[in-house]
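Give me the 3D structure for Ribosome-binding factor A.
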Amino acid sequence: MESKRQQKHAKLLQKELGEIFQKEARHLVGKAMVTITRVMVSPDLGVAKVYLSFLLTDPQQTYELINDHKKEIRLYLSKRIGKSVRIIPELAFFPDDSASYAQHMDKVIGNLNIPPAPEEEEEDEDEDDN
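Predicted structure for Ribosome-binding factor A (130 residues):
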């Protein structure tokens, strides 16, 4: 479980990285929408795991591009939060597949052949006999 300090730091990173992808790193992602779905920070605040979700683009290609420019993104981050934190964390990016997994599960559940439940009237008649 993360401490309050880690949670506060993670929230700051999530906000700032989101703005970086909207403004400074626009040349990297183009028209793609990159969403920071979750940030987890190590106890020493030195490493941040950043989970990304992508819209309007090929997720794998955009993920690889962002991963290749990790140092540049960290530099943008240091310019934004450098005076308020002691250590700019190393960034580890991971694709967040929760949305595609949810769509997959909806499809699987929708394709299930579930027989209709028995009517409640039959159950009520059985209870009256007792």
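The helical segments are 4-22, 26-29, 59-68, 70-81, 98-110, 120-129. Let me know if you want a second pass.
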